[in-house]
Structures are given as C-alpha cells and as structure tokens.
Design goal:
Layout: H1 3-9, H2 24-40, H3 45-58, H4 71-76, H5 85-99, H6 104-112, E1 123-124, E2 129-133, E3 144-145, H7 146-151, E4 159-163, E5 168-169, H8 204-224, H9 235-256, H10 260-271, H11 273-280, H12 287-302, H13 325-335, H14 353-363, H15 370-374, H16 381-391, H17 396-404, H18 409-421, H19 423-432, H20 436-451, H21 454-464, H22 466-479, E6 482-484, E7 496-498, H23 503-506, H24 511-521, H25 524-532, H26 534-545, E8 553-554, H27 568-587, H28 596-616, E9 627-628, H29 633-647, H30 660-681, H31 690-700, H32 709-722, H33 725-735, H34 755-774, H35 783-797, H36 802-808, H37 824-833, E10 834-837, E11 851-854, H38 856-862, H39 865-871, H40 875-891, H41 923-937, H42 945-960, H43 989-992, E12 997-1005, E13 1020-1022, H44 1033-1039, E14 1046-1047, H45 1049-1064, E15 1089-1098, H46 1100-1112, H47 1127-1130, H48 1142-1156, H49 1158-1169, H50 1182-1186, H51 1190-1218, E16 1245-1246, E17 1253-1254, E18 1262-1271, H52 1300-1314, H53 1317-1323, E19 1331-1342, H54 1343-1355, E20 1369-1370, E21 1377-1378, E22 1380-1383, H55 1403-1415, H56 1429-1444, H57 1459-1480, H58 1499-1510, ...
Amino acid sequence: MAAAAAAAVGGQQPSQPELPASGLALDKAATAAHLKAALSRPDNRAGAEELQALLERVLSAERPLAAAAGGEDAAAAGGGGGPGAAEEEALEWCKCLLAGGGGYDEFCAAVRAYDPAALCGLVWTANFVAYRCRTCGISPCMSLCAECFHQGDHTGHDFNMFRSQAGGACDCGDSNVMRESGFCKRHQIKSSSNIPCVPKDLLMMSEFVLPRFIFCLIQYLREGYNEPAADGPSEKDLNKVLQLLEPQISFLEDLTKMGGAMRSVLTQVLTNQQNYKDLTSGLGENACVKKSHEKYLIALKSSGLTYPEEKLVYGVQEPSAGTSSLAVQGFVGATGTLGQVDSSDEDDQDGSQGLGKRKRVKLSSGTKDQSIMDVLKHKSFLEELLFWTIKYEFPQKMVTFLLNMLPDQEYKVAFTKTFVQHYAFIMKTLKKSHESDTMSNRIVHISVQLFSNEELARQVTEECQLLDIMVTVLLYMMESCLIKSELQDEENSLHVVVNCGEALLKNNTYWPLVSDFINILSHQSVAKRFLEDHGLLVTWMNFVSFFQGMNLNKRELNEHVEFESQTYYAAFAAELEACAQPMWGLLSHCKVRETQEYTRNVVRYCLEALQDWFDAINFVDEPAPNQVTFHLPLHRYYAMFLSKAVKCQELDLDSVLPDQEMLMKLMIHPLQIQASLAEIHSNMWVRNGLQIKGQAMTYVQSHFCNSMIDPDIYLLQVCASRLDPDYFISSVFERFKVVDLLTMASQHQNTVLDAEHERSMLEGALTFLVILLSLRLHLGMSDDEILRAEMVAQLCMNDRTHSSLLDLIPENPNPKSGIIPGSYSFESVLSAVADFKAPVFEPGGSMQQGMYTPKAEVWDQEFDPVMVILRTVYRRDVQSAMDRYTAFLKQSRKFPGNPWPPYKKRTSLHPSYKGLMRLLHCKTLHIVLFTLLYKILMDHQNLSEHVLCMVLYLIELGLENSAEEESDEEASVGGPERCHDSWFPGSNLVSNMRHFINYVRVRVPETAPEVKRDSPASTSSDNLGSFQSSRRPKVLQRENSGTAQVFSLVAERRKKFQEIINRSSSEANQVVRPKTSSKWSAPGSAPQLTTAILEIKESILSLLIKLHHKLSGKQNSYYPPWLDDIEILIQPEIPKYSHGDGITAVERILLKAASQSRMNKRIIEEICRKVTPPVPPKKVTAAEKKTLDKEERRQKARERQQKLLAEFASRQKSFMETAMDVDSPENDIPMEITTAEPQVSEAVYDCVICGQSGPSSEDRPTGLVVLLQASSVLGQCRDNVEPKKLPITEEEQIYPWDTCAAVHDVRLSLLQRYFKDSSCLLAVSIGWEGGVYVQTCGHTLHIDCHKSYMESLRNDQVLQGFSVDKGEFTCPLCRQFANSVLPCYPGSSVENNPWQRPSNKSIQDLVKEVEELQGRPGAFPVSISSETNLSKEMESVMKDIKNTTQKKYRDYSKTPGSPDNDFLFMYSVARTNLELELIHRGGNLCSGGASTAGKRSCLNQLFHVLALHMRLYSIDSEYNPWRKLTQLEEMNPQLGYEEQQPEVPILYHDVTSLLLIQILMMPQPLRKDHFTCIVKVLFTLLYTQALAELSVKCSEEDRSAWKHAGALKKSTCDAEKSYEVLLSFVISELSKGKLYHEEGTQECAMVNPIAWSPESMEKYLQDFCLPFLRITSLLQHHLFGDDLPSCQEEEEFSVLASCLGLLPTFYQTEHPFISASCLDWPVPAFDIITQWCFEIKSFTERHAEQGKALLIQESKWKLPHLLQLPENYNTIFQYYHRKTCSVCTKVPKDPAVCLVCGTFVCLKGLCCKQQSYCECVLHSQNCGAGTGIFLLINASVIIIIRGHRFCLWGSVYLDAHGEEDRDLRRGKPLYICKERYKVLEQQWISHTFDHINKRWGPHYNGL
C-alpha cells in the first residue's frame, strides 16, 4: 500500500508539482479549498475531473495489501514509511477534502448541527448492558441504552436490565417499536420542524469523495479474499485483511455518527446504482479495476452463486417483484435443471451419496426456488458491501457501520431488501463457518433491527418475497442433514428425518434463521400472508415433517447401551425452536372468528402431511414394539390449531376432523409416548442409560410441556371423544401391557411384561386415564383459569420464589400471547392464591429468599393432584405435594390421618368434547373397575393403594358425569342388551354399579388354586385379554352360548378396527396384516392354561361396601348416612367428605350413587342389612414377602434413624455438660470447682476421639480444638460515629488514615524515630492488623489422638474443601472448622484457696512480691529444660500462632529477628483476643456475665501458652517498667542522651500493654492479690496519663485556672485522691518543659469549644480509663472465673472498678462518684508524678510538637463496621461496571469492590496479577490479613476469601419479591436487605465465616 504515498506526493500527474513533506498538510488544505471552489461554480466539469484524478491517485488500489505481495512492490513504494503509512495518508486526504479546506473537527461540528436526532440508534455489541421495558415496548425485542432509559420516565413499569448476547441498538425515538411515552427527553421532540436545511456546499465534497472511498474499500475486500483451500478460509488471513482495513471502516463509522445529514449523503452513495456501475463494471482500460472485478466474479462462483449474465443456463427469468415465486418454482420443477444445485453442497453430505440423491429427489417437486437459492446480482455499493460482510463472516466493525446507518429511513428500506436478497447466501456461509456461534450472534444483531418493525417487514414481504425466501432457505438448510427414519418399518420406510447428531442441530446453528422467522411471524400482516398462501403452507409442513419422529429410541433388552448419546437435547431444542415457536406465532393471529379460513388451511395441509407420513413409514394399525420418539410436531400442529379453532374461532370441531380410521392412526403415537413414560418410570428402559430419563423429564418440563405433552393429551382427548369408547379403553390397557393382569384369577401369565413392572404399569395406565378424563386445559378452561391451576399446582409442590414461579408456569412461548411474565393477570392471580413469606434467616446462617406459599383456602378447595402429577418433572414432587397437603390438614384439624389425594370438581366441558365422557360409561371400563376392586378385596398381588385410589377416582368421575337420568331405569329391563348374560346390562355406570355378577369363567395356570371342575349353569367369562386366549374365543362362545359370553379386550379391539377399516376403505383389497408377531407369543415353558369358573356374586356396590369394612378393619363399619338424615341425598356436597382417606372416598362414592338413583339407594341398604361374611385372611406368599411394601420398609428405616439421632443427641448433650467448660452461659465458674472441698481439684477433660476422660498430663496432654486466624477487624475501628459510605461517584473517596490500625502505626513509627527500639516495642501493642484470633468450639481431644485423626484425614482424599496439609481439619464431634490444638495446662483449673481469702498485706508488700516473682526465671511447675510432650506441643502451637499471620504483621523491630519482636507479638496476641471479645460483647461490659452468645473461650489456655514462652525472655531488671512504676529513682539531669537513644517515657507507654506484660511475666498460676496489685499500680499511671492529655487538650486560660485552683487544695488530707490537685500538679510539672509553649495556630484546632465543668472533666477522665478497666475485667474473668456484673452504661466505671478491687470496700456510693477515689499510690503521688513528667520534659525540650502528639492517645474507638451501601443496587452498578482498572485502564471483565475499605479490584484480572497472585487475593491479604469481603459488581453477589479458600456468600441486594438475582440475569431493580447485611457484618466481626458458610473451595490465588 505504500506505493500510494509515492503516487500521492507526486508522480504520474505533471500538473501537480512535487512538494516537500512538510508542506504537504498545508497543501492538502489548499488543494481541498481550491477544488471546493472549483466545484461550487455552475460549470463544475473541470473541477470534477480534477478531483477524480486526485482521488484516482490517492485512493488507487494499484498496491499490494500491505506488502503482502512481496519484495519488489515494497521496493517500488519508495520509502512510504511502513505498511500503514499509505492508508493513513489516504485517510488524511479524505478528511481534508470532505472538510473542503477547513479543519476536519470544525466540519464535523458543523454537520452535527444539522442532525435531526429523532432516533437514538446507538449500536452496541455483545455484553453491553441495556434495558428493556415491556410496558413501553410494542415489539418484544425493544431495547434502550442506559442513557435513554434513565432519561425517560419508567417508574412503575415492567422493565429489566439485561446483558446483550448478540448486540443490539437503541430504539428510543422509533415509534414503530415502542410507545412514544417511553422516549427519553432527547428524542421526544419531533424534530424535522426546527432543524434548518443543510446548506448545499457543506456536504458537496462528500458526495464526490465518498463513492471513490467506498469503492476503494470494496477493492481491498476483493483483493484480500483468497478462495479458501478445502478446509475453509483460514481465519488468520481474513483477520489480517480486516485489521488493515480497521482505520477505513472506523472512518466510515465516525461519519455515520455525525448525524442525519451525513447519513443521508452516505445513503445516496451506497444505494446509487449508476455510481456503482461506472466504478465497478470492470470494463474500461484500468487494469486494476478489471482484475478486481474478476476476483469478485470468482468469489461469487465459489459461493455456489451465479452472476446473472449466465442466467440462460437456467432458462428462468428473474421474477419481477410482483409475480409470485410459486409460478417460478413450478417452472424450475418443469425444466428439471436441478443438477447444478448440489455443487456447493457436495462436501456437506458426509459421503452418504445415495441418501443425498434421494433427498434431492424427494424435494425436487417444485418446492425449491432456484432464484432464491442461487442467483445474486449486485446493483449498488450497499449490496456488494453486504456480500463481503457475509463472506468475511460478519466482522464486528462492518456490522456496526451497517447498523449505525439505520436511523436513515431510506437506507433502512434499501438495506433490508439487500439483506433479504442475500439471505440464502448468509445461510450457506453460516453452515460452513467454523465460528458459527459468533456469526449467529452478529446475524441476529442485524436482523432483529430490521424485522422487528412491522411496517418494514410487510413491505419486504410484499416486494421481495421474504416469506418464500425464509421458508425455502430453512428447508434447504435442514436438507443437508437428513437420514432415513427407522420408525415402524425400518426396511421400507420412505420417511426422512433430521439427524440430531449433526453439528447443524447439535450446535443450534439454525437458530438465527428460525429466530428471524419467528420474529416476522409476530407481525399480523406478515402472518396473514403466510396463512393465506397454500404453496407456503405445503412447503412449511414439509419442513415440519423432517422433525416428525426424529431421535428414535429403541429399548435395549439385553445389555446396557455402550454409549449414551446426548443428542436428545438437540432434538427437543429443535422441535421447540423450529416447529413449536413458529406455531405459537401463527396461533397468536388466529384469535377471532374472521380467521377461520386460516385454521382450515393449516389443518388441511397438516392432515395431508400426516397422511403422507403414515404412508411413508408403512403404518397400518399397530406401532412397532419397544421404540418411541417424543417428537411428533405434525400431530401437535394439528392439535393446537384444532384447540384454537374451537376455543376462539367458534369452528365446528367435526368439520375439521378426519374420518375414524385417520383418528385411530392419529392416537397411536401420542398414546405410545404416554405408555413409554410409564415404562421409563418403571425402570424398564434402564439399559438405555440416564438419557432416556432425561427425555421423559424434558417432555413434561415447564418450557416444553405446552408444546409437547399438553397437545398430545389434548389430541388423545379429541380422539377419545370421537372413537368407540370400548376400543379406546382396550387400546390403552394394551399399550400399557397390563391386559393379562386384568383377570379375576389370583395367578396369571403376562407375556409382555415382567412381574416386577406390572404394578407400576397398571398405576401408569389408570393415572393416564384419570388425567385424560379430568384435564381441561384445552377443553373449556379460560386463560385465567389455566394460569391459576398451573400456579396452584406449582405452589403445592413447594414454596416458590417469584422468579422460579415465572419460570415454571408454562407460558406460550410467543411473547404476544396472553400471559406475559409480569403481566397484570400473573400478579393478580398470584396474590389471590398465595401468601408472601418474607426472606428470613435460619440460625444456621442459611439465607432464605422471599417465598410464596399457598393460602389455606387453596389447599382446602383448589389442590388438584391430577395437575400436580401432570406437571412434575421428578416423581418426588408429587410426594412433596401430598406431604404438604397432609401437614395442612393436620394443622387445620381437618383430618388427622394420612389423607388420600382429594377429588376436585372440574370446570364443565366445552360442548364439542362431550363425547369424552362416554369413556366412563362403557362396559370395558366397568369390567376393568369391577375386576380391580375384586382383586384388591381378595388381596391379589401387585396391587397398591395407588391403584385403588385411581379406581375410586374413575368411579367418582363416572358418577359426576353420568349421562342420561335414570328415570326410566326399570322400564329398560329386557331390552336387546339382555340377550346374553353378559357382564353388564347397559353402559351407564350408575345402573351398572348395582348389577350382580354371579360366575366368571377365567383362564388360569393349572397350578392355580381356583381350578375346579364343575361349571354352574350361568357364568360370565373374564378372560381379560392375553394373547394366548385370543385364539380360542370363538370356540368358547359356541360351547357356552347359552351361559356365558367371553370378553377379551384385544379381540374386541381388533374387531372394531377391522369393521371401521372395512367400512371406510373403498378399496376392498386393503388387507389387514394379522399381528401374530413372534415377539409377543407366550414363552414355551409356561404352564398349561385351563379354564376355571369362579363364583363371585358381587356387584360394584357390594364390593365397595366390603372394601369399606376392609379399610376400616371392622365388620359392618358402613352405615348409610341418609338413614339418619334424608337431606344428605339432596345436597351431597358435604365438607365432611372433601378431605380424608380411602374410607372417606368410599363413603363419598356410595352417597353419590345413592343420590343419583333410588334403586342404588335401596340396594345399598339391603347389602348393609346382610351381615357381611368375614374378610378372607391375608395370605402372604413368598413373592409378596419379597416385595414387602416399600412404604413399610421406609417407615422402619425412618424409625431407626430417629432412634439413632435421639441417642446421638443425648450423648452429645451429656458430653457438653461434662466437657471442660470455661465459659458457658449457665454457670461461669467451671463446674469442677466445689467450695466444700479444701483440696485442689484437677480439671477433667473428655477426648472426643477415644471417648476417655481424665486430666491433662505432661506426657499425655489434652488440647482444645481451635481455629487460629489472622484478623484485621480491630484495625478497622474508626473514631467517628458516622459510618463510611461506599463511594459511588468520582468525588467520594475513602481514606484509611482515621482507622485504628493507621493511628497505631503512626504512633509506633513516631516512637521508633526518637526512642530506643527495644523499649518502643514494649510501649505499644501490635495486632490491630493481622493479629491472631483464637477461637474454639469447646471440644477437647488427646493430642496423640489428634495426630492419628490427621493421618486418617490425609489418607482419605474424598474430603476436600479444607487442606489437611496445612493442618486444617474439622472437629470430630461438631464438625466445626479448625486448624490447631491448644494444649491444656495440667493442674487445677482454677486455684481454689488462695484467692478466696482476701489477703491483708499492704500494697507495698505486694509490690515487692510481684517484683521478686518476676525476677525468678522459669518458676514453673513444668521445667522447660525437660522436653515433655506438653512443652513440645506448646512450642508447636506457638509456631502455628506465628505462622497464622504474615511476617509483615509480626516484625516491627528495626533489627529483624530480635527477641523483642517475639515478645511484642506474644503479648499482643493476648491483647487482640481480649479486644475482639470486647467488640463481640458490643464494645462494653454492661451486659455482664454471659460471654459472647455463650461462646466457649480458650483464653485461659492461651494465656498459659503465652506465659510459658514469655518467661523465656526475661527482661533486664533495670529496664523492667515495674521499677519505674513503683520506685523513685535519683533524677540524673544528663540522662546520657549523647551515647544512645533514650527509653520511652513511662507516660507514653500503653497501659494495657503494660498490664499484659506484667501478668504474663508472672509465674502461673497467678494469685489474685498479685493481680489486683498490678492493676492498682497501673491505674495510677493511667490516671496520670489522662490528666496529662487533658492538660494538653485544653486552652491556656483553662490551664492556668486549674493550676491555681488545685494548688490551693494540695495540703488537704486526701490530696492524692483529688483530681483537681493532681491535675494542677501535672500541669505545673509539665510546664517546666517546652510542652505548652508552641501555642500556634494549629493549637487552636485542638481546643475543645466546650467549657470544662467538674462534671464534664470527670466524664472525660472516666472515658479515658474505661477501655483499660474493661480489658482488665475480662482478663480477671478468664483467669479467675469471676462473674462479670451487669450494669447501666453510666455506672459501668464504678461497677468495674469495684469488681477489680480498685475501690475500697467501705466506699459509700451516695454522693456523685469520683474516679480519683480509686487511686491507691504505692509511693507518694507527687514524687512519682514528678519523676514521670521529668522524662517528658527532657524529651520536649528538643521535640515539643511530637511530645505533645504522643501524649494524646485515642482511646475511644467505635465498633468496626462494613461500608454503608446505597439503597438501590443500580447506583453501585452504573458507577462501577464502567469504571476502569487503575492498573491497565481497561474496564475489567469482573469488577469487584472491597466492602471493608472500598477499594476497586478486578476479579481474576490478569492485568493486575503480581507474582501469581490475582488482585482480590492480594487485596484480601493486605486489607484483611487473609479475609476479604468483595461485592462482585456484575453478579450482585458477595464473595468471601478466607486464606486459601473462598466461598460465594450470597447477595445482600434483593428484588421486590425478596429474591437474589445472581449474575443479574433477570435484571430487575434490587434493593438493599439490611438484615442480610447485618448478618454479613456480624460474621465478619465474629470471625465465623468458616463455621457458617458450608461451600468452600480452593481459589489457587486466581481470584
């Protein structure tokens, strides 16, 4: 390309003098201005030619693509400055020329001024966040960009935010797609009026320059495309070309963004045919253009397309826009020139050539339109641009450019037509593409913008035959993957189906085309054209038939299938998307009477297609055994259009139904599916693997059911209502293979079913009949009733969240149907049937969502088990619904026992379907019911309660729907029906119920008990079915013509079928093949069958009454209720009978029978008078023992489990009571201590592993199970009350310097600057950040047991979730997470005697004792020198404690590894644990006794371990702070400042740290009086610090006033206990130095505006001392077991002081309490204060400023909190999801924000990775010492990182229905749930993430 630069700078054209490069820019502008002037003249030919010549040069295509062609060209280029320079140059020229000499930016601004921005049209790509408002949308695809959405008013609308999958464009301002009320402020103005006209000269240059520019682009595209080798174009090459063209396309894209004026120029250029012809024809002398034109022709050819010039081959004129394409199709068919079609598809046929030919033959009958598939003629730039866009597989940039132009109306039309013209080509490219997913998304990105607009779609349909093109293209696409169908007749089948294993189906490659088709069918005008066009309907049915019978399953009978194919999902998806959704689209336009004609058309062609299908698979009357397909789209089309016809169009059903024979065929396959469902659930298909279960579930699953099972059941209902009922019923039982079971005999042979499957298949058959007869979804329910029934069924199975309910309710897939999710009716129905349960927390911490639960009256009246059974995917859901129903009845006291499913009244049938009820009144069903009742009563095997339940349900249905009234029942006796003593006289159930049956002849195996030889005179023969018997019926009939009539289900069915066929078939030669298939004959080994005659003498009524006795277990338990109350017959709907078990059901049925007929009533009374014979005793056969009812077994298992659990619970309880319990809520003093015994009792521990109890000893120590974790919670305390908010704008920032951790850090580094390092490390505590927190579950174990437990865990690899190598385990008893064992110190738990008697020694004596004890090294009962097991364990646990936190949180010394570091670290561990416990108690001790929620504490043990190690470092006696506190020294003014840094002055020491150092340096166990002594001494120091700080904080005047006031009282008796005196003394001592001198400006900042009163000063001093008192009291509580008293907040100080022994016991509390009265000075107060102040004085002489800062200690920290979050999640989302990463300045893919400190981090972002740690993990270590709490912006969930593990915690933002929206999938507005956030904060503060959250996984530092 570099050659261009040379050409441009000067070369071929002499008229243009050569210019130096620097002058070039200037020259461009000048040239442009000159040309513009020339073109503005009236006669502008010269100017035009000059411009053309310039453009020729600048944009010449005579260059290789970026030196791709090789060396010599590049050399010729003459230093063009690398490959990209020429393009840059060309673009610069274009910009200059467009601007006509001015600046390009000014030009842009000028053009923008003329933008009539009526439409937004912002184009976005995948993953963009957009909005959709259903309230404002006219088209379901409407979408808005965030800006337009937020500027419009959508309050209260049904909107959601979504992440674009394929990309899209903003529809704001387009009134075809959305209502104007929803437009945003910018696009509301109808603009054409107020925008001035565009001046002609502004865009004049553009009109000349752009055609050349676009042509240049096209030439590049032609040049760059090399026809791929066999394996498809290498993506690399294509991408290379596209990268080079990036700047050009971006330039065009920028032009489109200039607004309407520029877009209309571009439209002119792109659509002008003359321009195109002139530039690209390839005629003329320019060789380059010629070559490019040739490449273009080659590309066309290779795409299997022809250039129109060679059209004559086809002999087809291109159809002009008006003529129908069908005429043309016919012509194509006639010429028969189909040969060339295949050329492009040869390679797709996978070598199945023969098949391929057959496909073509099948489809050449004139359905394929040549011109649609194979001719493309480009007449404009736009058309060729689109061609190349497709060829290059839709590069994102090109797509965006083409879409950016859409706001221009003229362009929109032209582009849509072009798109349609290329539709076939798009399909071909898509099929070949390797990246079909990406390409699909890009195609839909374009098409959804074009086809969502009804006006446009209609226009294109009329002018470009859009429908013909789409249908043909779809048909053509599917043709490439057809295979021969194996359904029914494998050898001779002519039917072809799609092969679901092919990539086309597996990868859903067809979806862009199908989704376009569905989209255009949603427009009424387009759908009407489709429904009127017969040719199209034929083609479409042809297309649908490709899916009919796909994915055939064959039952494996021998061994398990080797490979489970997963193609079934592709099959279900294909049927749903390619067949069902277009069907719903069409149905939505057939809603009114006027559309009857459409339905007739569809039904007609559908039936024709079905007839063809039956012929193609050679179907006669029996389906092939052991195979099933779930895909019958033709049946479903037919069913749904029938349903619509009756429901909405008032069509007469019979006018659209076929003849009986066709109906019989139609019912076979849907019925086969229902039977197969039962077989699959009976485990008869196990050898086919899990996938067959998957199919059975998908078939009924909520997204599929209303396109699959519902139409199937409806079709069966239609067939049943029109066919002979006896035929239908016997077909059902034969299909379900239970015919042989239906015999009165106790034994039978079933030739087609194993015994273990009989029961569940019988249940399946009866359940199916119940569903068939009671379901009313398409038989008369209104839409609202359907919605209500669906909702009730789902809610009865389980409480549901709002979103799962929306998901589970089958919604017509077409969005324009009645029930749009979120529509008014959904919400109103929901509030009518359900109550909302707000989201709650369970104590375990598992979070509930907001749930809907059925109202009581719904359970009472609307619970419908039939609907539940139909809609359950998992069988357990039916059980769940029944359990919930049972619970409701128990709770509302309606029924105590185990109820049966209630019988529910049905909505009335639509008159067209009345025939369905004849099934209930046919003899066959009555015989079955009678037989089953008899078998149940006689305890035959393989019957269950479920069978009985269904039998009774059917009887009850029959009584509810009894046809004619029985007024003339007596008269009809002796009619023709009575000619034989057959089973029943008539077909009405009401009268048949009372008919007595005396004898029945049965066929039984000879071994059966019934075999008797004598035959009474009159018998009914029950040889219900079974194939063997069907050979003998005629014989039997002859023998017994007088006495019995044989009834065989199968024989009856055959007869009926043949009659119908003979009646309906005109050709006499149609032979019915007899079905004696060998597979079905009896196994040879079966015993001989003989005939026996049973004496029955029962009627259905008598069987029911006996059943009542049997169920109730009492003789004569039934007493007719009407004998007491005759009213009951008139009004039989009694609430008493609506809920109950089998007994209730029987009573209800008998009552209904009696109320419907006087005869029945009389007969029931008669039966009840006779004393019933005893029920036969139940014989348990061996077989039955084996199948001991599963329920019983389950019951027993449950009881066993309860017993075990109870036992376990009691063991655990007793353990809890005896376990070492330092701190249980009931009694804080450990239980072992009894005051009665003088001797010391040893603590006893239970080991939870070996179960032994005993004391902890040196050689076998016991330990507490503990979890050590580093914590920075303390460091997050702040000193202000106002909680910090999460930043949601750029201005808001969170600065960490007011946190506790930061303040302590500053203080330590300040001390280290001026004082001796080792002394600094004793003056403070660390561990505010990264401190080690120790917690325990309170269980103990032997340390050796623990080691073997760890070994076993290590070998057991299953238990991952924690890492055994890091020492992690779960407590063997309570399974709490832990990672170490803290050894228990042997000896008494708490020493008994010494501290109970208060010692009377003076404080001075005690001080001396303390000093001596501290000096004694290792005064421990356990000597360190002897290495015992205990000391080893203590060391190892100390190592664990150190390793818990990072090195940077342990090493603060200037000399690394100094022992002072360890010393500091150890006492700080104690400090951290005490401070955290204080926080867990709420920051004060007012609540008293109970430790945090009764948590067990391990502080006592921890102290022993720490003390043991601290004693190893003895402090030099001269540095021991104790000396400084209790002894006066000679003051040496020259304290040796010169040679080294001084010690830290005692007043700068942290008193709490001193306390811990003193206590831990003492030999353990400590005596109480020593403890008190230490506390008293330290309190004096603390008090002095308080006074000093107070003196610094107040103003100069206050100071002098106090100084004098106090000095006056100095001589009083208790001066040492008066704060005024002490304060004045401190001030006078400190003022000797320079401390108060710098009263500068900054001093004013410290002044407290309040005037100090004695009360406020007292309060100030108490507040200063309180934190110390709290920690000390806690420590005392843990060391000595003292109770913590509870108190009011205001008296906390005095209560704690007296508890600690600071207050003299005789202290009166009447007058106001004064803190100074707690002081007890071991040495004269004024002397020691002087000594302390002297240290400060000498320091402040050099550093007054720092000296003052160090005196001020911040002691009043507020409790730690997480950041405060905004109310609405959208505010967080909008700010953070576009925020750029600070490291790489890109927008991260997964942004997250830390909820502790507000830092913005990238989750998993590689850009921010440091030494293999991703940013979140790194931040969790820096901010929380290993614990991080992050809010994932794009998912709204919180993720917790704890060390090397992480877990998803859940969301604290819920929608209006109390649900989380993980990943923002639903995009509904989310609001903060304060309770949840509180729980999160609580878990953070109490360090319980590990215990409460269960699902942890390792993160491998990758988060």
